[in-house]
Amino acid sequence: MSTDRKDQHSDLEEMGRDMSTTMTDTAMPETTAPSRLGGTALTLAYDGRTVAEDLSVAIPDRSFTVIVGPNACGKSTLLRALSRLLKPKAGTVVLDGTDIATLPTKQVARIVGLLPQTSIAPDGITVADLVSRGRHPHQGLLRQWSRQDEQIVAESMAATGVTDLADRAVDELSGGQRQRVWTAMVLAQQTPLLLLDEPTTYLDIAHQVDILDLCARLHEDEGRTLVAVLHDLNQAARYATHLIVLCDGRVAACGRPEEIVTAELVHQVFGLTCRVIEDPESGTPLVVPGARRRSGA
Amino acid sequence: MRVLRGAALSVRYRPRAVTATAVFAVVAFAAVVLTLGSGDYRIAPAEVLRTLFGGGTVADHFIVVQLRLPRVVTALLVGAALALAGAVFQSLVRNPLGSPDMLGFTEGAATGALVVVVAGGSSAALACGAVAGGVATGIGVYVLAWRRGVHGYRLILAGIGVSAILSGVNGYLLTKAQLMDATRALLWITGSLDGRAWADAVPLAIAMAVLVPVVLITCSRALHVMEMGDDTAAALGVSVERVRLTALVAAVLLTSFAAAAAGPVSFVALTSPQLAKRLTRAPGPNLIPSMLLGAVLMTCADLAAQHAIPGRQLPVGVVTGVLGGGYLMWLLATGRKAGRI
């Protein structure tokens, strides 16, 4: 039994290494890029309800990968699996060539950061205190707060523009400010890979753009690999360097937004009739839903 | 927030929390000295101190160290153990109502003790029964609440359900007991420190010597992070289920041993962590301040129980119950004002 598993494991490792090439033939025309994080032949299920079967994805290094798809297509589930919060029923999530489930959780937390959809700010906690908790995977019983911790927390708050809020209580802040604070917390974790589960939900459009600009800056300036689940296809097309379109637990398309976002794809995945034009601001694809035909008009 | 740094060591602390904790320790000690000096044979505090540190007359020594000290030490330990268990539970379920007395563990300890009483067992057997009952209830609630991990609300609901069933069972057991036994059992269920000897304090002291370091070293930092949600904690590298299991086991054992020593004293576990949080103004489980505040509440309640009604001693559980109920009302009133309830 144990040798079986070992064989399977090395097989999967092999697959993980070869993934970029095998995927080239099928769904990923562009990605021959190296990938530290990916999933092979994943079956993902909640309470016996299977969300995805035989799902394989690779996150290209130093990309801003955005996962989009209709409601309940398995976007967030995939992100949870990639961050080892959900154990796949079959298949492996591979981080740096190793099955993520076999790695110590603290070690994973130094490589992969995650901003979940819902986090709880403890009663009365200040911004600085919350952000400092992002240092947890780097701390120990005797090493609770080094100078390095202090410096990184300050930098994270500066990068997200929350330095002025440092002594405010998190529960007094507005939604947009709060999201920046949580982003600062995962930044303080200092992981080369950062996963964000719907970071723009509950924010108005200005704050959505604000957070996405921040993400883009983190990606460009610091060479981080970002993976975000987003609802808005146009925002995804504008910000992503690599887009993964999920539909019913399968990858419907993936690659650069300019190359894969077409009216046919949107119709196939979302069942929406639309036109895809060039975004006058960024030159990326812009999905314009077809107008409703009014009776009598 | 201040930091102490050495070569390979850095410790963060909040000055206010440290001050508050020191004050709790002083108050607890003062209550201990007062309690040791009070009773039918009064001894001045200065004499009590002298006796405690090896001086004093033979008579004083006999009264203070032999007769009264076991009771006071039991009160200190029970208060600290219950408060620590309460702080751990409230942090785990992220709810101020999530204390062992609400979740049925103290009821379970009472059931275990009552079974022994009905069977006509000794005091030592009664304590063993209490520990066994508390632990069995802990396992039962955990199994009932388990579904891909144990989550706060399910744990509270399962605990309240089990607690209701057990209080019915306890009532039934009381009617089955002999009259003398039933009286003894009733006193135990209220929570009482009367006639406590070293034999009552020692098992609890041993349990705490093991469990308190386990909780403080392996769970304290993880509990801080787990207050931000299981997903966030897991993403920050905490083995959420393992920490939760360790903390639950430790807290159930602390509660059970405390109940074995003094009966299921109510409300100390519920109120101490919340009061500690308000006094230290620190987020997080406040484990050490809660523990000391629990010791303060328990010793002060015992002092009040001995003197509230002249010439008559009350069981300490009556005092903690009245204080705790009042506190709960206050929490409700202030919560309503703040629009939270």
TrEMBL record, chain B:
Membrane topology per the entry is: Multi-pass membrane protein
Keywords per UniProt: Cell membrane, Membrane, Transmembrane, Transmembrane helix, Transport
Question: Per its UniProt entry, which superkingdom is the organism in?
Answer: Bacteria
* Pfam families named among the record's database cross-references: FecCD
SUPFAM superfamilies per UniProt: ABC transporter involved in vitamin B12 uptake, BtuC
Chain ranges passing through the membrane: 17-36, 48-65, 72-93, 113-143, 155-174, 201-224, 245-267, 287-305, 314-333
Q: Does the keyword Hydrolase apply?
A: no
Fetch the InterPro entries from UniProt: ABC_BtuC-like, ABC_transptr_permease_BtuC
Q: Which PANTHER family match?
A: FERRIC ENTEROBACTIN TRANSPORT SYSTEM PERMEASE PROTEIN, FERRIC ENTEROBACTIN TRANSPORT SYSTEM PERMEASE PROTEIN FEPG
Tell me the protein's name: Iron chelate uptake ABC transporter family permease subunit
Provide the species name.
Catenulispora pinistramenti
